[in-house]
Amino acid sequence: MNVNIENALNHKTIREFKDRKVDKEIVENLLEVANHSASSNGMQLFTIIRVTDQDIKDKLSEIGMQEYMRRSPELWIFVADLYRNYSIAKENNMQNDEMISFDKFIQAFTDSVIAAQNVVSSAESMGLGTDYYGNIHNSTQDIIDLLNLPKYTYPVVGLGFGYPNQNPQLKPRLPISLKSFVNTYKVFDNYNEEIKDYDAEMTTYYDLRESNKRSDSFSLQIPKKQGTIIANRNKMFETLKKQGFIVK
């Protein structure tokens, strides 16, 4: 099997890393991987903040309420960035509101996510472990202030990576038949019936895994995770407008 496909099929979130810095050459290569990622209209609407200051790591960990975040050897924050291109246009007296519109924000958000995933795939191909940090949205404004992000920028996702110090079990996924259709969206008559085997598999997974054992299933997680809001995340849209994006 192709090594990239094998790595993708065996992707695991790594939260604990060895106390070892990632080689400088690897870091530089991964930055170039991000730089060469696909970009909407070639506008390259993302920026990476590489966090090397331990005090900032500690504060990010506190804001995101994930203690292990502070121990990431490499910690990058991917930022949707309309500021750079808007500034270029302004210097040439060619700026307009469309450059900071919600449409362009979505392009920048997508550019950031694509770049982050390219880094993850490349890092894992070199034997590194990775962990996405969506917890930066627990208080987006605090992240903006901490990293001195200017107007027309917005933090999208954090990424930690390094040499793994754990080997967690592979987490089961929903059958692809529920997530992949041909030509049109397929609506099922009974979703509980469709996922009953997966629910049982997830219950076994939580019961047998080495850490944080509990009785749980996918169907029970939906109302707990998708059906509730994490404190302050209801302020994200307000923060987006405060950052200067034109949303209508």
UniProtKB/TrEMBL annotation:
InterPro entries: Flavin_OxRdtase_Frp, Nitroreductase, Nitroreductase-like. It comes from the Bacteria. One of its GO terms (molecular function) is oxidoreductase activity. Signal peptide: none annotated. The keyword Nucleus does not apply. PANTHER family: OXYGEN-INSENSITIVE NADPH NITROREDUCTASE. Belongs to the flavin oxidoreductase frp family. This is Putative nitro/flavin reductase.
